[in-house]
Fold each of these.
Amino acid sequence: MSTDIAYIANALDQAARKAEPVTQFSTHSPFSLDDAYLIQRASMRHRYEAGERTIGLKLGFTSRAKMIQMGVDSLIWGWLTDAMLEEEGGIVDLQRFIHPRAEPEVCFLTKRTIDRPLTALDAVDYLEAVAPAIEIIDSRYQAFKFSLEDVVADNCSSAGLVVGAWSRDFANLANAGVLMRVNGRVVQAGSTAAILGHPLRTLVQASQLLAKAQIALPAGSLIMAGAATAAEALFPGAHVSVEIAGFGECGFSTAAQQGEMQ
Ligand code: OOG
Ligand code: MG
């Protein structure tokens, strides 16, 4: 039986909209990774029809810590939209999520259209700036359990992001300490070196994936490099911050009670 791309895409879109989880699809009717990206694209079309627009892309599973936490072993990519962007230092209402988690990331801002595979040497020429960031992920699958194909179909659990102050200090990005705190307590610690050995390598990977998909990424796009550490579950009344040594800090708070915005 061929994979029902439109059906799964719609079910995942509805799950995200209603914040109601669905069961994994691939366990009952396996589908290929290529089909998973077709489902992702079809599911994103629902969002664009609802008025969202792309602001960039994200990579996933670029660190061992994330691969081990989620039990998968390949790099994946998905789309970021304007509706996902949360204000730095602001309050995030958890009610629109199912079981959100936060993870520390590095975010790039591009300055040239990426329309060909880049080398590690080229990468910096395509970048305007880099910033510490936090990604909020929220799998649309029950219990946050999925196969690689399931999570790709689900736009790689993309749900939100917070981006800190921009810098151009690309030279010190190779091995900067990463700390994530919740209510002042360090909950995750790592290094930017955990991200493919060097976060700039994510640009090379992203450019190759874009070329394969025959998509050009416009200047001014965001690229989230993938978490350097495992993710942490979010709860009401939390203050979450991420510090990348030499690059500063960014953070957000979650509403004290679900639905309460202050
Ligand atoms: C999938 C998304 C992975 C990352 O930074 O590795 C990801 C997930 O863990 O649900 O965003
Ligand atoms: Mg991530």
Amino acid sequence: MLDDIKSVDETLITRTIIQKAAEDWVKFSECDVIVVGAGPAGLTASIYLARSGLKTLVLERRLSFGGGIGGGGMGLHKLVIEQPADEILREVGCRLEMVEDGVYVVDTAAMIAKLSTGAIDSGAKIILGITVDDVIFRSSPIKIFGVVVQWTSVIMSGLHVDPLPIRSKAVIDCTGHDAEVLSVISRKIPELNIMIPGEKSMWADMAERSTVEKTGEVCPGLYAAGMAVAALYQTPRMGPLFGGMLLSGRKVAELLIKKIKS
Ligand code: 48F
């Protein structure tokens, strides 16, 4: 049995990783949509964007998927989903248990696995360990043309290493409560007059509806989905009720598919 294990030259490992990673970076140095953050909103958006044939790159700061899904409700491994968001999870084969009519509970691990598999199977490229640090912009009229990225490990080290730009037709801020891309432009492009007041206190029903309603374009080339929307418009939080995150991700994808493909 041990004789069956293929021997692999160490330098082949190195050459393969460097060459194949470089091929991805070159291929995605220009793409249709950059999704910043692989939480529920970002993963859902990327499923529909990539499925429609748009070249979709998801950049995630951590070395794992799912954003806030894994934390469930106060660390318990369950989340609540309300209709019609259940249809998004059913599409990717995620098991749901009905709690009452139109209300479901889901295992956090299953939701992370199925949404991320759905995004990858649809053709989205997800790269982990990358932090979006800034945007590319042009003035008169102001438009966002992509993002500036850095290894998360470099940012954590505190070393001064210049980042690299990636161009895209659109960028979606799916970075959650801190709305990180929007925060950067609020500081660095003051002419946009964008402020990030942060979300309001909890009101689950209102939060779900307003997050989905206000999901969309913030300025030319830049969109917001998920909790970044609540942080931008100071709408309420909803806690571990996640239907709005999925519907927000699907809505931003539909808006962009229409815009880019028309
Ligand atoms: O926080 P997160 O899950 O955002 P979301 O998709 O969903 C919010 C819910 O999880 C929950 C909630 C709903 O009731 O309140 O909090 O809006 O996922 C955001 C992802 O973005 C990554 C971060 O690591 C997380 O995985 N992220 C944040 N900033 C950056 C980033 C950045 N600058 N560059 C790359 N990734």
Amino acid sequence: MTFAIFGRTALASILAGALMAGTAGAETLRLSHNTGDTTTWHKGAEKFAELIAGATGGDIEVRVFPNAQLSGGDQMRQAEMVGRGALDLVVTSAINVTPLVPEMAVFSLPYLYANYEQVDATTQGAPGEMMAGILAEKGIVVLAWGENGFREVTNNIRPVTSPDDMKGLNMRVAGPMYIDVMNALGANPQQMQWGETITALQQGVVDGQENPIGAVIIPQQVYEVQKYLTTWHYSYDPIFIGISQQKWDSYDAETQAKLRAAAQEAMSYQRDISREATASGIDFLREKGMEVYEPTAEELAAFKAATQSAFDTWAAKVGPEIVGAFQHAIAAAN
Ligand code: X2X
């Protein structure tokens, strides 16, 4: 008996020693994101983990936690947790940060962008840096911008071809700005966690939702619970990799440069796969039985006019300096 206990203790200490030797100097960072493990968000986060492990010879390991599980399922709380150092890293989208930083709503103002060139001129240009500066004031260092994408509307009641078709639809929305947009269209918006949305759609608690095709709708199989999709491109949503300022400040310049390079490459990859999945996505969704409607330029203009009041309300909240910087970069991209 005594011998057995001694034996186990000895074995345990040998194992512990081996484990420590194998991970000498290694540090594991926790990365939280708020979609499932099949999305391009998750793939981008895993790519970042792989790249930073490679660049640091395994000194920095990143463990990716999907579905906002580190913030109790609350997708809006992640940014605040990173800001105070309770989480090391986050991959989340702009709309999720608006409770903490209302200015982040600028990206998703209805019909701000008409195409990807305009998007890239802001996220990969001076406006993106401007927003990174604002997030830094909240303790979040933006390492790179990626893509959730243009958010398209789905529902189970009818095809949406004009603003009138939105009237009376019970719509799940992610954040405060979209409540105002849905109200402007005469829909009934309800803010809900993404993690609860598929079930809510399935059970008919809500009729519809809106999300990007490549990054979320396809990988999260929204087509299994929704019949109609309209590519109205009404709002763009970027994602970003952010690290807590506290953690960032603990690294030397060389390590910081490695973190930034890994994040840039990972988000560039993530943008690419999101755009590819979106481009091939319409056909895929039709094959899966969805009825997809692609509005004409005139019909898009009608949606734009119908959501103008929400644009104006939120442009005022964001402030003319930031909105102006975005509009300037967008105009120059044309
Ligand atoms: O909740 C959503 O709709 C999602 C996944 O797109 C965001 O995080 C904004």
